[in-house]
Amino acid sequence: MANTAIYFYGDDSLDLSAAFWAANDISTPASQITGDVVQAANWIKSSELVIVVGGPAMSKVLDQLCADGLAIGTSSGQFTMFCDSYSWYNTAAYGPINADGTNAVNSLNLAW
């Protein structure tokens, strides 16, 4: 796990700010944090470890992956949503890690 890059995606200003705070805590370079849904989807499609911060970001990235012709959590097994990095590392079908909290502070805590 120490050698794997971690990427963050937040959509609105609060969630993107939370992504920056969580990323800064583990010294993640700014180049691995985005507010661009296409970039986040591309990272996910490249099997990168992407933490999606907040509900708006999760909805948009799932919509983008579907628009790209990919399936999330279906029998095709292309992608699954995960709640933590442990389950992400131990599953063949990678996807985004869900840091969609009940509010912005909860999303920040989940991202951490």
SSE diagram, text form:
Elements: E1 6-10, H1 13-25, E2 33-34, H2 37-45, E3 49-53, H3 55-67, H4 85-89, E4 97-99, H5 104-111
Parallel strand pairs: 1-2, 1-3, 3-4
Helix pairs in contact: 1-5, 2-3
Portion of residues in helices? 40-55%
Instruction: Tell me about the largest β-sheet.
Output: 4 strands, parallel
Uncertain runs: none
Overall number of strands: 4
How far from one another are the termini? 15 Å
Strand order in the sheet with the most strands: 2-1-3-4
Overview of the structural elements:
The structure is a single chain. The chain has 112 residues and is α/β, with parallel strands linked by helices. Helix content is 43%, strand content 13%. The chain contains five helices and four strands, in the order βαβαβααβα. It has helices at residues 13-25, 37-45, 55-67, 85-89, 104-111, and strands at residues 6-10, 33-34, 49-53, 97-99. It has a four-stranded parallel β-sheet, sandwiched between helices. Strand 1 (6-10), helix 1 (13-25) and strand 2 form a beta-alpha-beta unit. Helix 1 runs parallel beside helix 5 and helix 2 (37-45) crosses helix 3. The longest helix is centred in the first third of the chain and has 13 residues, at 13-25. The two termini are 15 Å apart.
